[in-house]
């Protein structure tokens, strides 16, 4: 039986009694198969698994509907049964008792790509994750590689604030076609799913290869310019994994190709690692 | 013998081996009697005392001379001998290996009073203190009440990020005259010291009393308006201890009276707690 914890004080008491490696999977609840995959990944590397279930108001913009974000604590508890030892589900008042709490300022990485679309979002993410790390003191924490920019923010968070947590990326889950799994895929019809393969198709052509920067930059430019009008690119770029600054033609080393596009009005994200060099 | 520690890895290893209550006194080095008072206060409440000795570049503004801030590690080691068990003195590269590190954003409290004079200062203070708390995991940490706004920032830091550290204020040390001790007092001549008593004199009249807000606000206005032209007030205000917002005439509860003034070109600070109510 998964034990439900709703207060920070109880979470701390229980943490103090735990031995062995403690794993954390932070979630905003409304759990689905993707979350369960993260949990299985965490279980492989930990003796005790804690799942946090908290809809973080700080990471919602004024035009994003925090109040209407789905919440289903009973359903979540049922889903993690047998997989997580503890479900930490504090209220917003428990996590943010004061007005205008101090926040982590992630600087420039919070203002580009997904951060440009959602001002303040990554500051809110970094703030709540730092709080969870301070309260729960996990040895490892698992984050999906699908949200590559979030993963980069979390890696810098633990580095810059010296938080002793190993950040474990969980690989992107894909359908047989290559399409990255997302609950939003349900909004695509058959034609849309076919067009959506432009994202994973581009990444499949590039990933795992070693390619000079000019060749990579040219390939991305071509992809953006020549794809079907049914695919509206927000971006398709190669970026530095730590800063999310676009690479230039003299770049060598590990990069991430990040892509975002709208297909049938549905916003799709994908990414892959690539080694840039001659 | 105080043991010198210069790397975060060694500090963590040693911390993991410590038992009992661990106390921390964060300093920027160039230790003087005021620091030793903070250390004695920390010793009273801890079994092991760690003093950090780090000139934090993040809390210096572009026009403040970080490079010329005095450093005297050998002198500091000699001074803490017999008082501190460990002196943690990492390099700037050890604490900030990356460019543009994530920082704590303290919000509005960082922009008023001392924060207005030093934009970004309190963000830098909060960032380094959070890092020290994460690395050292002290049970208690001592900060001087003299820097009231810094103390307020640190108290909110541990509250907002759920850091399990007890923040212990050390009372303001005063000369027989009442003048708050400061290394800057050495720049005052006899006449200047006499005028400087305007600060502590005002606080002495107010502190420990229970006074309605309108009466307190009137007293502060009078003090600013009627004092000698040899005392140039930056501010003399009653503020909320958590937010440092000036109280209004309907305020009740605990407040802090904060004063800053220039006497003979020397900037002096002082403060006192007061209960506001009918």
TrEMBL record, chains A, B:
A single GO CC term for this protein reads: cytosol
Residues where ATP binds: 28-35, 144-147, 181-184
| Keyword annotations of the record | ATP-binding, Cytoplasm, Ligase, Nucleotide-binding, Pantothenate biosynthesis
| Compartments where located | Cytoplasm
Q: Does the keyword Ligase apply?
A: yes
The answer to whether UniProt assigns keyword Nucleotide-binding to this entry is yes
Q: Which InterPro entries match?
A: Pantoate_ligase (IPR003721), Pantoate_ligase_C (IPR042176), Rossmann-like_a/b/a_fold (IPR014729)
Q: What is its EC number?
A: 6.3.2.1
Q: Which residues bind (R)-pantoate?
A: 59, 150
Q: Which GO terms describe its molecular function?
A: ATP binding; pantoate-beta-alanine ligase activity
Record-level GO BP terms: pantothenate biosynthetic process
What CDD domains does the annotation carry?
PanC
Q: Which Pfam families match?
A: Pantoate_ligase
The active site of this protein is located at 35
- Chain sites annotated for binding beta-alanine: 59
Q: Which reaction does it catalyse?
A: (R)-pantoate + beta-alanine + ATP = (R)-pantothenate + AMP + diphosphate + H(+)
Catalytic EC class: ligase
Major localization class? cytoplasm
Pathway the protein takes part in: Cofactor biosynthesis; (R)-pantothenate biosynthesis; (R)-pantothenate from (R)-pantoate and beta-alanine: step 1/1
Q: What does the further note read?
A: The reaction proceeds by a bi uni uni bi ping pong mechanism.
Instruction: Kindly state the subunit structure of this protein.
Output: Homodimer.
Sum up the protein's function in the record's words. Answer: Catalyzes the condensation of pantoate with beta-alanine in an ATP-dependent reaction via a pantoyl-adenylate intermediate.
Q: Which family is it part of? A: Belongs to the pantothenate synthetase family.
Q: What is this protein called?
A: Pantothenate synthetase
- Write the gene name: panC
């Amino acid at each position: 039986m998964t034990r439900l914890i709703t207060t920070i004080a109880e979470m701390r008491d229980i943490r103090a009694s735990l031995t062995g490696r403690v794993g954390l999977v932070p979630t905003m609840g409304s759990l689905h198969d993707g979350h369960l995959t993260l949990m299985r990944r965490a279980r492989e590397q930990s003796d005790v698994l804690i799942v946090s279930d908290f809809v973080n108001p700080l990471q919602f913009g004024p035009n994003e509907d925090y109040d209407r974000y789905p919440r289903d604590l009973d359903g979540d508890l049922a889903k993690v049964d047998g997989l997580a030892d503890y479900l930490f589900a504090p209220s917003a008042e428990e996590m943010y008792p004061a007005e205008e709490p101090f926040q982590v300022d992630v600087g420039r990485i919070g203002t580009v790509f997904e951060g440009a679309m959602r001002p303040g979002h990554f500051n809110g993410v970094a703030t709540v994750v730092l709080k969870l790390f301070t309260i729960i003191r996990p040895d490892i924490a698992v984050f999906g590689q699908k949200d590559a920019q979030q993963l980069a923010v979390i890696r810098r968070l633990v580095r810059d604030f010296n938080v002793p947590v190993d950040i474990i990326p969980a690989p992107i889950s894909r359908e047989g076609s290559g399409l990255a799994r997302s609950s939003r895929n349900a909004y695509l019809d058959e034609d849309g799913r076919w067009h959506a393969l432009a994202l994973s198709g581009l990444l499949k052509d590039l990933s795992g290869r070693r390619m000079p920067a000019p060749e990579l930059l040219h390939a991305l430019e071509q992809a953006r310019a020549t794809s079907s009008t049914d695919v509206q690119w927000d971006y398709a770029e190669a970026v530095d994994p730590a800063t999310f600054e676009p690479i230039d033609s003299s770049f060598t080393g590990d990069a991430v190709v990040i892509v975002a596009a709208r297909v049938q009005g549905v916003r799709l994200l994908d990414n892959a690692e690539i080694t840039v060099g001659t």
